[in-house]
């Protein structure tokens, strides 16, 4: 199968979670060449980072037509975000809403930093598109997941490196049920099962219990969102 963009080269922001795994499959289906980048920022859910290589390897094994398009993986140190502190994603504090109306899982500046680092890496690697799994439909109120934020970043990054750089967000207007549906369209049951079993979203790092929707504690906001999306998608028949 030929890619839809035979001359384009993409860098996928790949955390090891459901959304970024779906985006990696989406990019492999469309672009001639794809690399991946992950970020270690002192996050509590380190399991995500550990899942990344397993997902890459199994994608290549189960979808050999994508394997030839998948290039190097990179992991960049973004631990400065942990040094800033104050987030339930980087500290052992209870998940709750803040006075400003945002959940304390929000890490201010995270996606801004991630895309800046990814843009610099793309420049060095000769890649022209950044792919991220941000969604304004299921975005937990995070302002750096909004479409306007990422459109502004695309302009700033392109100006900053003096070459066109596209920011693609294929999940921007999809909810979690739609994201499961997209995975099924891209790779049928095989891709859905791969994402279900080998990606990780749970904020609590729980990987002992395999639910219908995947591993997780089943109680944190990430698990609840993922479970609801899977249930809604399953009911579509």
Automatic annotation (TrEMBL):
Its cofactor is Zn(2+). Keywords: ATP-binding, Ligase, Metal-binding, Nucleotide-binding, Queuosine biosynthesis, Zinc. It comes from Alcaligenes pakistanensis. GO terms for biological process: tRNA queuosine(34) biosynthetic process. Belongs to the QueC family. Its EC number is 6.3.4.20. Catalyzes the ATP-dependent conversion of 7-carboxy-7-deazaguanine (CDG) to 7-cyano-7-deazaguanine (preQ(0)). Pathway: Purine metabolism; 7-cyano-7-deazaguanine biosynthesis. Zn(2+) binds at residues 202, 217, 220, 223. SUPFAM superfamilies: Adenine nucleotide alpha hydrolases-like. It catalyses: 7-carboxy-7-carbaguanine + NH4(+) + 2 ATP = 7-cyano-7-carbaguanine + 2 AMP + 2 diphosphate + 2 H(+). ATP binds at residues 14-24. NCBIfam families: 7-cyano-7-deazaguanine synthase QueC. This is 7-cyano-7-deazaguanine synthase. GO terms for molecular function: ATP binding; ligase activity, forming carbon-nitrogen bonds; zinc ion binding. PANTHER family: 7-CYANO-7-DEAZAGUANINE SYNTHASE. The keyword Membrane does not apply. Binds 1 zinc ion per subunit. It holds the Pfam family QueC.
